[in-house]
Every structure is written in structure tokens, then in C-alpha cells.
Amino acid sequence: MAFSETPRMGEASIHCNVIVFFFVIVVVVVVNWAIQDKLKRFLPLRVGGVTMSQQQISLIGAPTDVGAGMLGARLGPEALRVAGIARAIAQCGFAVSDRGNVAGPANPELPAVDGFRHLPEVIRWNAAVYDAVYRELAADHLPVVLGGDHSLAIGSISAVARHCRERGKKLRVLWFDAHADFNTATLTPSGNLHGMPVACLCGHGPQELIELSGQVPALNPKDLRQIGIRSVDDGEKQRVHEIGIEVFDMRFIDELGMRHAMELALALVGAETHLHVSLDVDFLDPDIAPGVGTAVRGGPTYREAQLCMEMIADSGRLASLDVVELNPALDVRNQTAQLAVDLIESLFGKSTLRRPAATAPVPRNARQ
């Protein structure tokens, strides 16, 4: 019996050693993961591929409402400053410089001519915004345009498009809005150019505006994602469908959720992508954001909007921003400006908890 027990004892010893070996490996892997996770919490946030301690944020005011149908958006830049936009971004760890306001003509309050209202004035304002945004991008700064009405996005995104061509970068534009903004002179019921910036950027509009970036169209429709849309004129519906813009309207969001919409909107955004966010404040539901000139009920809630900004921040790819259509004349104790600043804080990385950068799944049918 003694001879037969010896090999069994040897086998037991081997089994024990194997178990100890695998246990040690598991412990080492877990400890290594925990150390890396702790280190991530102390690493600086990256925006546009640059660490936040290195990134210069440049605020550019554009106080005009020449493209709008209602007066008041010209007061938007100062309302955002009063709400503490510079301080909020700085508290997220960025260097912030307020470049003041670009200059442009006054609002003449005239009727439309040949389907366009205040076209000469809109051209001059957009040229000024274009020059200011391009100058900041050339210096590797992140420009934040404080509007002003949404027609200003023609100038800002035209500058971004030129910058991307020169740097060999892909462009992705996230357009947060209640409206499709794809009206033209033949489609528009009002002639207000704040309803036409997407059409102009896609090559459908006055020559002076569509050629601003040096290439027509300035923006490939496949590089645009519209989020929160819920008010589209009849003529716009057909044009948006024909041109192939990817739209995540409120029905899509209601049925599938904001997270899924944002995963699709951010799909394939990588290190070689310049991500531009154009935030029209009327994207939000007017119950929480009354200070807008073209309010449409049924918009995203506060938390849905925050989720959008947080997911963009997680991507680390934000490289330029418009904040437009804030109308303090219609606001209540500057609450819409304060809400906009809350969202911008999240966009620049403020969060309830420290989280590792999220990796959004890439849907199989996501567009290149």
C-alpha cells in the first residue's frame, strides 16, 4: 500500500502547484488592471487629441440676429459670458481666452429680396466669423463661436472644412437642432437665412456663402449628423432625403433612445477626425430652455442633452463648437444661458464620476 500511495501524493502536489500558479497569475492581472485604472484617473482629459492642459480654448462672440426672424439673438454672447462660460470651461482644466466679438453690420429689419432676407449683412457676418475661426484653428486652438443666430455656422464650418482639407483630416459635424435648416430661396416661407445654413454648406445657396471655404460644397452631407430634429418644412423633407443626410429625429430618439442615436452619430470618429459640434439651443425642449426664438415642443430633456455632451466628451475628439440661437430677450432670469453653460461644461469633460474613456460600439451599418 505504501508504494501505491507515493505517486498519488506526487500528483496531488503537482495539482496544488498548478492551482497556486494560476492563482498568482490571476492576482497579478487584477492588480495590474487596478493600477492602470487608478493611473487613468490622474491622466489629463484629451480633447481633439490634445491633453486639456495644452489645449487653448478661444471664445469668439458674434452678436447678430440678421439671419433670424426675431430680434434678440444678438444678445446671446453676453448672456453666455454672464452665465460664466469662460469660468466653466477653465474649471474643467483648459486655458481659456475670450477674443471678444467680431464686428458686422446692424440688423436693417428689411423684407426678403429674391428669397433671401438680409443677404449682404449675413455674408459680412459670416466672412468675419470665418476669418476668426480659421485664425484660431491655424494656431491649433479650439474655437467656440458664441452666437448669434444659426446662419453663422456657414462661416464657422466653412473655416473648419478648409482647415480639415489643409491638415488632411476627416470632418464630422454634429448638428443639434429642432430644425433641419435646409431651406433655400425657393423653399423658404420667410427668407430668413438662419433656416438655410445646412443647405448652404452642402452647396445650395447664394454663391458668396457656398464658396466661403474655397470648395463647393464645403461639407459633404455624409459627414453630417443631425440630432433632435422635429420641425421640417415640407420642401425641406424631400431635399434632406435626396441629399442623404443622416437624421436622428425625435421619433428615432423616442423609439431607440438618445444613447443609441449618439453611438450612431459618433461611429467611426477616430484620431484623424475633426469633430465639430453646432449646438442650436432650440434643440432643447422649451420647457427647460425658453430663451429661443423658434421654440418647438417635444425636444430632449435635460438628462438626454447632458448624455449627448458627455458622450462627445468621452470620445475625446471635440475640436470646434458653435453655440447659437440663444435669445435672452425671451429668456427667464438667464436660465437658458445657464443651461447652455451646464451642457458646455459636460462637453468639456465635467462629470459626476471619474470614468475611463468610453468606447462606443461601431454599428455594422454605420456610414464611413
Describe this structure in words.
It is a single chain. The protein is built from twelve helices and ten strands. It is α/β, with parallel strands linked by helices. The protein folds into two domains: 1-43; 49-347, Ureohydrolase domain (Arginase, Chain A, 3-Layer(aba) Sandwich). The strands form two sheets. An eight-stranded parallel beta sheet has the order 4-3-5-10-9-6-7-8, with helices on both faces.
Could you please say which CATH topology of the largest domain applies here? Arginase, Chain A
Helix content: 40-55%
Q: Within the largest sheet, what's the order of strands?
A: 4-3-5-10-9-6-7-8
Inertia-based shape: globular
Number of helices: 12
Oligomeric state of the chains?
A: single chain
Largest sheet, in brief, is: 8 strands, parallel
Q: Kindly state the number of beta strands.
A: 10
CATH superfamily of the largest domain: Ureohydrolase domain
| Class of secondary structure makeup | alpha/beta
Give the count of structural domains: 2
Give the averaged pLDDT, no decimals: 88
Low-confidence stretches: 1-5, 35-44, 358-368
Q: Determine the N-to-C terminus distance.
A: 73 Å
Question: What key phrases describe this protein's structure?
Answer:
alpha/beta, 2 domains, 368 residues, globular, Arginase, Chain A, 12 helices, disordered C terminus, 14% strand, two-stranded antiparallel sheet, disordered N terminus
Layout of SSEs?
Layout (H helix, E strand, L loop, with lengths): L1 H41 L3 E2 L2 E2 L4 E7 L13 H7 L2 H7 L3 E7 L17 H20 L3 E6 L5 H15 L2 E7 L20 H5 L5 H4 L13 E4 L6 H10 L2 E3 L1 H7 L1 H9 L6 E8 L21 H14 L2 E7 L10 H13 L21
Parallel strand pairs: 3-4, 3-5, 5-10, 6-7, 6-9, 7-8, 9-10
Antiparallel strand pairs: 1-2
